[in-house]
Specification:
Blueprint: H1 2-15, H2 24-34, H3 41-52, H4 57-78, E1 88-89, E2 92-93, H5 95-98, H6 101-121, H7 128-142, H8 147-157, H9 164-188, H10 195-222, H11 225-228, H12 234-237, H13 243-247, H14 249-274, H15 281-292
């Protein structure tokens, strides 16, 4: 994982506008928001799924950078006073604190635009229709039927009591949609998968996308601010429904483990459907990392 994380840091540094290019403050803030932090889970997933389809890593790194820029933009906006009003992200001041609110808003807008520019400007698939599907996948994942819609539900639900089904619906959109897109877009950079294999891969991605949020909720309740690199206990303080508040900490951990097992089963079905065999190993390792991580 470390090799891909280092590679993505270099790729992102290359693709982001230089801080010396006008408008300097905006470009410096875009780099501040995106570089030197984060686990790069979405790029790791894109590379792992690209491995399934024999994708050229030079193609995958562009697709992965686009997804990571969308993720970075979402964090910048999520931290703003009109959203979660947080002051710490990845162990450093959030963008609106380090710069100002207007700059943070523009950073998110610019990162989103650059992500789609990257997907449109580079040849990432042999079939133009497959590349158009990548654009559609990412647009849906970050729009009202994905991340933005999930965030809207989250804001509307603050202070309210949610059931487990309502919580799952929210997080399949808010967190899970972009993780699923990363997996599918990475795979689309290579040879086409059959319908059965695509379905199994998407089920894997759905499971780990939800598991990521479940574990996030557990860590928010259990871990320290220093460990997380962001303000711990913020969800409880703001009256937000989480998997810990709805299920309890022990049951939330059990649910995350159930999702990990289900993700591994989906990879087994994927191997049967497409004969990819050992190429699912990295995806399996990432499912384990997502559920068993401590930060």
């Amino acid at each position: 994982m470390g090799g891909i994380q280092a590679r993505m840091e270099a790729v992102l540094a290359r693709l982001l506008p230089a801080a010396t290019l006008a408008p300097e403050q905006l470009h410096a803030a875009m780099r501040y928001a995106t570089l030197e932090g984060g686990k790069r889970v979405r790029p790791l997933l894109a590379f792992a799924s690209g491995e399934l389809t024999g994708a050229d890593p030079a193609r995958v790194e562009i697709a992965a950078a686009a997804v990571e820029m969308i993720h970075a933009y979402s964090l910048v906006h999520d931290d703003m006073p009109c959203m979660d009003d947080d002051v710490l992200r990845r162990g450093k001041p959030t963008v609106h604190v380090e710069y100002d609110e207007a700059t943070a808003l523009l950073v998110g807008d610019a990162l989103q635009a650059l992500a789609f520019e990257l997907l449109a400007a580079h040849r990432l698939a042999d079939d133009p229709a497959a590349q158009l599907e990548m654009l559609q996948l990412l647009a849906r994942a970050c729009g009202s039927r994905g991340m933005a819609g999930g965030q809207a539900i989250d804001l509307d639900s603050t202070g309210k009591t949610l059931g487990a089904a309502e919580l799952e619906f929210m997080h399949i959109h808010k967190t899970g949609a972009l993780i699923r897109a990363a997996v599918r877009i990475g795979a689309a950079c290579g040879a086409p998968l059959g319908a059965g294999a695509r379905e199994a891969l998407d089920h894997y991605a759905k499971c780990i996308g939800l598991a990521f949020q479940v574990v996030d909720d557990v860590l928010d309740a259990d871990a320290s601010t220093a460990t997380l690199g962001k303000t711990a206990g913020k969800d409880a303080e703001q009256g937000k429904a989480t998997y810990v508040s709805v299920l309890g900490a022990a049951r939330a951990r059990e649910f995350a483990e159930e999702l990990r097992v289900e993700a591994h089963k989906a990879l087994g079905a994927l191997s049967t459907a497409s004969s990819v065999g050992a190429q699912t190993r990295r995806l399996a390792e990432l499912a384990d990392f997502i559920v068993l991580r401590k930060f």
